[in-house]
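Example 3.2
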Amino acid sequence: MEAIIELDKKLLLFLNSFHADWLDPIILYVTKTFFWLPLYLFLLYLVIKNYKKYSWIPLLGIALTITMTDRITSGFMKPYFKRLRPSQDPDLEGLVRLVDNYKGGLYGFASSHAANTFATAIFFFLLFRNNYKWMWLLFVWAIGMTYTRIYLGVHYPGDILVGGMLGMLCGWIGFTISNKLDLKFRLRSS
């Protein structure tokens, strides 16, 4: 386990070293959930357009998905594992490049950003993969969004990897529940 943690630190320092002063304020803004509100509104539009009176079913599914990822990462994993973020780790002080002294919370394992973005990506990919072939671009968004966390020095790559895998599992669970509800209610009404 010690070798994995050491590799995680080395990989963080390598990936965190790719900085450009002009990019710092952009990354700091892009990492915020609020920045992506237009994307979320667009996904909401697609749900309403495709599901009409049954829109509540996938909306319930995504709400369940995000609740799961957030509760598991922030409610359980971070307080349980108590792994300091790189930005909070005294051993890495001066080695990790921070932007505007942004440090995030104290603990970072596993990444809630990664869990939430990958959960959203897989949920909507599964929901709309047959309707919109470009839905795979949500994974590009999720990768970019989670890289901002490494760029800012607030997550190790391992935090991102575990958060992303957890997010995809929760996204799949949320989609599966949503899909079963959709089938049940559509069959009942026909």
